[in-house]
Amino acid sequence: MNRNDHISEATNMMTIHERFQSGAVILSVKASVLSDIDVDMIKTIIRSHLNSGVKQLVLDFAHVRHLNSLGIGILLHARSAMKAVKGELRIAGMNEDGLLILRRTALNKYFPVYQSVDRALQFQPG
Questions:
Q1: Residue 32's closest CA among 97, 111, 91, 110?
Q2: What's the pTM value of the predicted model, to 2 decimals?
Q3: Contact predicate 41/8, CB 8 Å
Q4: Which of 18, 29, 49, 112 has the fewest other C-beta atoms within 10 Å?
């Protein structure tokens, strides 16, 4: 872990690894299912980065086993927050079940989802 890395734990069930790479903040979330406490922590972390001027955010959900309604809520919150600062949100590593939920709810139209963080970091405007 380098000096730009930070790990937060909201519950015994979730950890968030924060790092900066290629001009973006990457929040790698590890959880079976997100809880209210987890969501509050993720919102606080996102708000903190936006207040410091971050314009590019990657949410790495490669280690989120189940995308529940709270997880969808975090995606919507992050999208809205990034849009408010004319920033960009990308999702990385979401599993097939999560992708299916996004497709069934038609939310896949609003979230660019990439196989990996490396792919998501290839930011292009728009």
A1: 97
A2: 0.85
A3: yes
A4: 112
Per-residue HEC secondary structure of 78-112 comes to HHHHHHHCCCEEEEECCCHHHHHHHHHCCHHHCCC
Check residue 122 and give its pLDDT: 87
CA separation for the pair 95, 93 (Å, rounded) = 6
Three-state DSSP class for residue 4: coil
DSSP 8-class letter at 19: E
> d(Cα 32, Cα 13) in Å, to the nearest integer?
7
Q: What would the pLDDT profile of 69-105 be if each residue is shown by its tens digit? A: 999 999 999 999 999 999 999 999 999 999 999 999 9
Mean pLDDT, residues 15-27 taken together: 92
- At residue 112 the predicted structure's pLDDT band, cuts being 50, 70 and 90, is confident
What long-range pairs does 113-116 form, CB within 8 A, spacing at least 24? 114/90, 116/62, 116/92
20 bridge partner residues = 25
Chain position carrying tokens 């280690």: 63
